């Protein structure tokens, strides 16, 4: 065996040197090649190592057995083959080194700051290693041996620093899981031993114990009955901490359902992303929805990672969007149980998203209908007031002139008088109807002035003192109409039912909304109260504009009626 052992000892150096200069730069720091084209460098490195190992086997004619003091003949010695193999292997190895270093430089150029720091650490350690390797002819042998021993350790240290300091391969998560599993193993082992030994001692003290095997059997049974349920519970707890709710899909679905309790649509979308990411312990998630043929990101949570797991959001064969769930670690794929849970949650999320979209469409359609109705009311009021009412008034004047042309007291004169009176009455009714459709003051001066003038027209000894606290603002026509009639109805209720001595009307313009309130110090509403025609009308007007309506006891002892209507800016 002396000759094979000496040949093996002399030919292993390519396996020691070349991989650190070729394979390591190719895959560091991601653990994989940048793309398939760099596989050529891998094969070149492997071929160069094999050829140089073969060249080393043919280099020396005699092998010295230092232990036995013998000179052994090398059966593979050949000067011709040595030169050929050395040249070929050197070319292959040098080409692999150049390609590997090029790949590392490109990764450094296109990489993030973190990747550049990782590569820089490795480059320094490899440079030290290469300097010692190339300095073999001029360095003292002891110095060379020291360098070739220490420089690989520097490579290992640089990799360790990259892993620990810069969180390469999500080592913190791996160490955390390892620590949790180790702690659980120690805890379960201690639990089993404590229960087993405790019952062993207990059974051994019983007077009926005639054999030590009885204690062993009883201890094993007790461990199986008592300790095993505890082990299963701890195992489930550990799985939830590390892998999420994949063992409890109904719990995850229940939490996703609770996310719909949020008031705002955006809050619901954020809750969906947060809930699904938490269900599988994902570091991040993103919710993307289709709008007008484009996919827009609507909600994100955590930190996204490359190559996320995509869940299509489908509802009745329509793709509403997709959920992008980041992997727990860059190289960790979700298992079958995780994917099944994510698909189920995606189906439930699609239903929620579809409902939100329908709600938004209905709200938009209702607002458009209310705005159109307000415009129609305003136009009809103007047409009545400016067109039909003058015609009736003119006809009344013509009838009055006709009456004067007849002999006083004649039947014709009486008929003309009745016609003129009826035309005047019709003109007055048409004028009142036009005013109800669109108050002239509201059209001319706006909501605040119209409310102020209307409140100012209310006077009398039995009427409460009404004050107005309002912000001057410009509003859409539909909002002005709804706000005006809300105030009219609320103040009318105070005048008719509240028995109040004073009331306050507040109109506040906030960013994106108009808030109105009418508060009195009267007797208040009975609890529970029944909505009459006035309260129902106010509520319908406000809700038709996607606003909120509320009525409750006020701070003055009476009642406060509030409305909050959204206003597009």
Describe the overall structure.
The protein is α+β, with helices and mostly antiparallel strands. The chain contains 17 helices and eleven strands. The protein has helices spanning 2-11, 13-21, 23-27, 39-57, 79-110, 113-134, 141-165, 171-204, 212-243, 249-258, 265-279, 336-405, 411-437, 440-445, 447-456, 477-498, 533-544; strands at residues 62-65, 70-73, 284-291, 294-302, 309-315, 318-325, 465-470, 502-510, 513-520, 548-553, 559-566. Strands 7-8-9-11-10 form a five-stranded mixed beta sheet. Strands 4-3-6-5 form a four-stranded antiparallel beta sheet. Strands 1-2 form a two-stranded antiparallel sheet. A hairpin with a 2-residue loop joins strand 5 (309-315) and strand 6 (318-325). Helix 10 runs parallel beside helix 12 and helix 15 (447-456) runs parallel beside helix 16.
Tell me the β content. 5-15%
Provide the gyration radius in Å.
45 Å
**In one word, what is the shape?**
elongated
**Span of the ends, CA to CA:** 91 Å
Flag low-confidence runs.
none
The number of helical elements comes to 17
Instruction: Please count the beta strands (DSSP E, at least 2 residues each).
Output: 11
Helix content: 55-70%
Order of helices and strands: HHHHEEHHHHHHHEEEEHHHHEHEEHEE
């Amino acid at each position: 065996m002396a000759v094979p052992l000496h040949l093996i000892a002399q030919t292993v150096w390519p396996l020691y040197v070349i991989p650190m200069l070729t394979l390591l730069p190719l895959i560091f720091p991601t653990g994989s090649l940048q793309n398939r084209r760099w596989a050529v460098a891998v094969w070149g490195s492997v071929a160069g190592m094999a050829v140089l190992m073969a060249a080393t086997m043919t280099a020396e004619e005699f092998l010295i057995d230092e232990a036995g003091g013998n000179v052994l003949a090398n059966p593979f010695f050949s000067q011709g083959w040595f030169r050929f193999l050395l040249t070929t292997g050197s070319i292959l190895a040098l080409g692999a080194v150049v390609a590997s270093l090029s790949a590392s430089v490109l990764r450094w150029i296109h990489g993030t700051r973190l990747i550049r720091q990782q590569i820089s650490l490795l480059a320094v350690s490899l440079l030290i290693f290469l300097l010692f390797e190339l300095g073999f002819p001029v360095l003292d042998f002891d110095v060379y041996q020291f360098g070739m021993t220490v420089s690989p350790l520097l490579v290992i240290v640089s990799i360790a620093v990259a892993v620990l300091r810069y969180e390469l391969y999500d080592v913190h998560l791996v160490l955390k899981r390892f620590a949790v599993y180790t702690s659980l193993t120690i805890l379960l082992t201690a639990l089993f031993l404590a229960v087993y030994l405790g019952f062993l001692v207990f059974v051994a003290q019983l007077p009926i114990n005639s054999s030590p095997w009885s204690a062993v059997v009883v201890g094993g049974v007790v461990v199986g009955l008592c300790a095993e349920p505890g082990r299963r519970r701890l195992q489930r707890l550990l799985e939830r901490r590390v892998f999420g709710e994949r063992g409890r899909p109904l719990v995850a679905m229940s939490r996703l359902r609770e996310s719909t309790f949020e008031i705002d649509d955006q809050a619901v979308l954020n809750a969906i992303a947060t809930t699904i990411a938490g269900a599988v312990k994902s570091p991040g998630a993103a919710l993307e929805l289709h709008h007008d043929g484009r996919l827009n990101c609507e909600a994100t949570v955590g930190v996204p990672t490359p190559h996320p797991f995509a869940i299509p959001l489908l509802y009745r064969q329509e793709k509403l969007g997709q959920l992008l769930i980041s992997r727990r670690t860059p190289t960790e794929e979700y298992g079958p149980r995780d994917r099944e849970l994510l698909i189920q949650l995606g189906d439930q999320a699609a239903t929620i998203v579809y409902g939100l979209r329908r709600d938004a469409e209905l709200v938009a359609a209702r607002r458009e209908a209310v705005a159109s109705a307000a415009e129609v009311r305003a136009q009809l009021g103007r047409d009545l007031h400016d067109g039909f009412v003058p015609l009736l008034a003119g006809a009344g004047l013509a009838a009055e002139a006709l009456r004067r042309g007849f002999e006083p007291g004649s039947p014709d004169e009486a008929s003309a008088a009745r016609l003129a009176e009826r035309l005047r009455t019709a003109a007055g009714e048409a004028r009142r109807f036009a005013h109800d459709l669109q108050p002239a003051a509201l059209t001319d001066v706006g909501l605040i002035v119209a409310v102020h003038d209307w409140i100012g027209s209310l006077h009398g000894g039995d009427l409460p003192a009404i004050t107005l606290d309002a912000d001057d603002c410009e509003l859409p026509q539909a909002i002005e109409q709804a706000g005006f009639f809300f105030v009219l109805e609320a103040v009318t209720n105070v005048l008719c039912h509240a028995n109040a001595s004073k009331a306050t009307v507040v109109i506040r313009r906030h960013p994106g909304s108009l808030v109105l309130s009418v508060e009195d110090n009267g007797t208040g509403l009975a609890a529970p109260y029944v909505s009459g025609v006035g309260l129902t009308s106010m509520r319908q007007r406000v809700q038709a504009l996607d606003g909120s309506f509320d009525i409750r006891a006020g701070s003055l002892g009476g009642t406060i009626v509030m409305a909050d209507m959204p206003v597009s800016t």
